[in-house]
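Anyone else keep sequences and structure tokens together like this?

Example one:
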Amino acid sequence: MGSISHCSDLAVAVVATRSAGISFGVDIEDAVNIEDEVVAMISSPNELEKLLVLPRCDLPISWRTVLFSAKESAFKAIFSATGSAAAPRDISVTIDVDGSFSVAWDADDATGAVPLLLVGRWLMWRQAVFTMAWIRP
């Protein structure tokens, strides 16, 4: 199993054997501000409120970019584990300033999938935001 991503000048690939028992996803985004329309499409009002209380960061990033990237990596982990294409607004992300994030996914009853909890890490490097989310069995 594996996950890949790229941005304007970087790429990442992560692989593991299925026997490792971990489903994961990775994402890289250029450290630019995500447009209001995109944020509105992917985020719940609760997530947007949580972003507003995060402190200003010394790093040249936008918390909205971290949120977007965390949702991308969580989507990949969920799809790897379930085969279900989760809607971005159904993936609830909570970002922590320590470089971690948590994810809850309430599966659509029609898929038969069970709700999942994921954990993840984010970091800023070379003007890009990297995220990785994973589900432990």
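And example two:
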Amino acid sequence: MLKDNSTSEPQDGRYIVLYFSLLAIVVKLTGMGIDTAWNLFRFLIIFFLALSAWKLSGEFFSETKKRFTYLIVFLFGGGLGWTTVVLAPIFPLLSRLHSTDLIYYLGYTVFSFMFHPLAMLSLGFILWETIFLTRWLSNENPRHLVFAVGCFLLAFFNHPASGVVGSILAGITFLYALWVRRKSDWVSFVWRNGIILGGGAVLIGLYLWWARGDPVYVYHQAYYLSWERREPFWMYPFAMGLPFVLGLFALARVRFSREPVKVVSIIFFGSALLLSLMLPAGVKYLYLVYPAVVGFSIMGLHTLVEWIAERFPHFHVKSWVWGAIVILVCASVPFVVENRATDIREGEQYFLTRGEDAAIHWLASQGEGIVLSSPPVGQVISWRTHHLPYLAHGFLTMDYDKKQAELRTILDKSVSLNQKQLLLSNARISYVFYGPREKKIGELFLNLPLEEEYSNDDVVIYRVLTE
């Protein structure tokens, strides 16, 4: 993973290696199985994330009932994206979002994060950054700003994508603090607190220099993907769904002040909007503001109830308030259950067949080379063998669309033999992995310069012959 330069973000391998190295040390010292250690770490991180969300809820609400409501919605609710599932059949344009990670990251955040513990851990640190930023706005204690910068650095070092959201949060908070102090001595304020923020920026710069990576690789993918975006920019705010609308209603009803519940809402609302509009591919990172959006959506729901009670005093809304919250929670639960059941029913999406597993095991004994396969198989080849996959996960494969089109071309009956040979030669493909997933894409013609090296009931692996 450290040397895999076929991906758009080879530096990410460092964080994965460090995480699994830690797991290996725990396994070595305790004697527990690697699966046990993996699950133990995941659930410890989930507990840390839930505790962080509970602490953040205290910035929104003082009542325990509302805080528990927040935690339930955060853990099990649809959050931002579940309405796309409901509305996509009515508005076909929304169905395009299903091809992205929007549903996984925004539809049921915690469930998705069980497969990505590093992202889950970084989200917990981002929540603590928010808590300390909010407290700093309330009392201007430099210690809280130092803690906020420290949490941001932990989130960044743990999962670099957090740098995008963490820096936006800090920037909006600082600008808001300047706006509040616009008629006072803001120069000394900038001098005192800018040193702390600048120190954090210097540490990140030193780390990136030490890592010898692209100094802006954290932001590179967002801007790179923005050119590939196929959805209109207005779709992202719309796709946020009910919580976003409720948050808008709540913010429209409050006065700007330094009260924590309003401050944290303004900060996160602005961050979500910036991520949606200024960074088109920033929808990928919206999961990092998801907990706060859930918070001000609940605040918006209570604000809506109060607004109705003022105008219709005889209309009792208390019972349907909790009903609406339950609907908000349960609306995504059927999707979660159905989606997880689909994973089990259609296991080829996430699980290898026995033939594929045996074929990859054989590949691992064959030295090094570049293997052409479907993206799911390529993803497994990247970490179970010494080979480089030509095509893997879309966000980890440079020129993904181009390479996927080349795979279809090689498996297309209508394409000439010379064109297929040229593609294999230019890509320096060593092996072609032809299994059940690849058969769904197209037929592999044996008049290509291929020699069968391995076969079983599911898979045939061919070596590409060179002249």
